[in-house]
Write a structure and sequence with these properties.
heterodimer; A: alpha/beta; B: mainly alpha; Histone, subunit A; 3 helices; nucleotide-binding (chain B); protein biosynthesis (chain B)
């Protein structure tokens, strides 16, 4: 549209803010808006006549990605007034590509959660049904795109936090291969699992946005030295001869019948396009959730030690001494789920328990990773549902951590193995809420994942349906 | 059998520098006990010959050149500090 000059950049940005004004009172996707700055940038971009494919596209950024001079909270009270002094590498790359950041998106506090109910600011609601959660932790990122407030957003995914909300909100969400995108400026939760990725309304947009943010970064020693690729140039619609693996564990116990049926229908569509599929096993899948909670919480307990009330963030008053200051600051600044995970991680790493819990989980991670390697030796992609059920109701399981954790059973193993995975819309549940198809690929083979996702999307019309907000 | 006692939860909270009320200790003990019990399903697996994975990519010893670069501006550093004086971050007394 922009290329054809059908719309001006200021109009596009204006449209985004108008839509936010109309629906965000209900959806509550944004924590902070940057309207004045965004409008100014839009005028500048228009007069500069930039022509890049992403030039002038409004984007929302998850609030755990630091933006210079724009408040970044990770949805935590401990960072409620935090004003970053630098931009995350992905934000710099967005500037280069010419997108316009309209604001910062709500999330579970420090990305810990699967419903965005753990935000200390507000509960984001699912645009398809406001009584339901949008998923999490990138709930604001998925809801804002589904609600038409922004065409693009960035999320982060540690155990499913891009794919699960994308599935719940009927949009496209990609977790790239670990190392594909720099984590510099992403407020760390679990460093060996975290990845930033794009959420969009369709696969082609998603591929373009990922192209803009990938690459090795001297500021992130875990970013991988692999060549940038034109994922969008590979969306041919041709998947003849594609070999699909369908893990029986992904269609078994705990997965609802309507989710199962939607995936089987999707496999028929893919067969119709010339692909073949076979049932396989990822035998250690059921251990994924336990492994993940031990490892992610252990890493979090270390990463979140930096929030001590000294250099930045909230500081408690009336502390007797330094230790007391740390303890009060953290007790008042962190929410319950964050405390629970810090304590679980501290316990798993503590003397006498390290081998039994942390090291054991690292060993099981090896087995889970090997499951994926074994299957991918003979197949191009692995396909299953993104989540066992459609979006649940707000408040339904918030008091039951283990049930909440079980939501991520189909997405967590992908992070543990470090492979890329996307969620694309694949139907609707009886109650009208969207369902997502998860497509998982080889390390650094986002190209194939996108090609399959695009071929499927073009053969269906689920992505064209919009919530009646 | 309980996996974690209230006393242990208090100790862990201290290690994690979190002040906890008696009520929180009670709730966290129950919840952590359930989570740890759940996590013990990993013991069904024999991992005696399995190497631990801390990182999924095949990269080791990522080094950079040892070159000096400008540090952060003092003004920037102090911008988010909750308490400061004379260009320094102020903290409670740390020596008795």
């Amino acid at each position: 549209m922009l290329e054809k000059k059908e719309v001006s950049i200021p109009d596009l940005v204006d449209e985004s803010f108008k839509r936010i004004a109309a629906v965000d009172g209900d959806v509550k996707a944004f924590i902070t808006l940057d309207e004045e700055n965004a409008r100014k940038q839009a005028e500048e971009a228009q007069s500069a006549g930039k022509t890049g494919i992403l030039s002038g596209i409004p984007i929302g950024v998850k609030d755990n990605i630091v933006t210079k001079g724009l408040r970044t909270t990770a949805a935590s009270q401990i960072l409620r007034n935090f004003d970053p002094i630098y931009d995350a590498t992905v934000v710099n790359k967005l500037h280069e590509a010419g997108t316009i950041t309209v604001g910062k998106l709500n999330m579970d506090e420090f990305a810990m959660g699967s419903s965005t109910e753990n935000s200390s600011f507000q509960k984001t609601r699912n645009p398809w049904n406001l009584n339901h959660v949008p998923g999490g932790s990138s709930g604001g990122s998925a809801a804002s795109v589904a609600a038409g407030e922004v065409p693009f957003s960035l999320g982060s995914d540690t155990g499913g936090s891009i794919r699960q909300p994308a599935s719940f909100c009927g949009v496209v969400g990609m977790k790239p291969t670990y190392g594909r995108v720099s984590r510099f400026g992403l407020i760390a939760f679990a460093s060996s699992l975290d990845q930033i990725g794009p959420i969009t309304r369709n696969v082609e947009d998603n591929a373009h946005l990922l192209e803009a943010i990938v690459g090795i970064d001297p500021h992130d020693s875990t970013s991988a030295n692999v060549p940038a690729e034109k994922f969008s140039a590979n969306l041919t619609g041709d998947i003849k001869g594609l070999r699909i693996a369908v893990p029986k564990e992904y269609l078994g116990e705990g997965v609802s019948e309507e989710v199962r049926q939607s995936v089987l229908s999707a496999l028929k569509v893919l067969e119709g396009l010339g692909a073949t599929w076979e049932e396989v096993s990822l035998p250690h899948s059921k251990y994924g959730v336990a492994t993940y909670y031990l490892l992610a919480s252990s890493e979090a307990s270390s990463n979140l030690a930096r929030f001590d009330g000294i250099r930045y963030g909230y500081r408690a008053e009336n502390a007797d001494n330094l230790i007391d200051l740390y303890k009060k600051t953290r007790a008042e600044g962190f929410g319950d789920e964050v405390k629970r995970r810090i304590m679980l991680g501290t316990f798993a790493l503590s003397s006498g328990y390290y081998d039994a819990y942390y090291k054991k989980a690292q060993q099981v991670r090896t087995l889970i990773k090997k499951d994926f390697e074994d299957v991918l030796e003979s197949y191009d992609v692995i396909i299953g549902p993104t989540t066992p059920t459609p979006a649940f109701k707000i408040g339904e399981i918030i008091d039951d951590p283990l049930t909440m954790y079980a939501n991520d059973i189909l997405t967590i193993p992908v992070n543990l193995a470090g492979v890329p995975g996307i969620s694309v819309p694949c139907g609707f549940a009886e109650n009208g809420l969207p369902l997502g198809l998860q497509i998982i690929g080889h390390h650094f083979d986002e190209k194939t994942v996108y090609r399959v996702a695009h071929a499927y999307e073009q053969a269906t019309d689920f992505h064209k349906q919009k919530p009646g907000l | 059998m309980t996996r974690i006692s209230e006393e242990q939860v208090r100790h862990v909270a201290h290690l994690a520098r979190l002040a906890v009320t008696d009520e929180e200790v009670h709730t966290f003990t129950e919840q952590l006990d359930a989570i740890i019990t759940f996590a013990e399903q990993l013991n069904e697996l024999d991992t005696s010959n399995v190497k631990p994975t801390s990182h999924v990519l095949n990269m080791k010893n990522v080094l950079r050149k040892d070159e000096s670069a400008p540090g952060l501006d003092r003004e920037d550093v102090l911008k988010n500090a909750p308490d400061q004086q004379d260009g320094q971050i102020r903290v409670p007394s740390i020596i008795e």
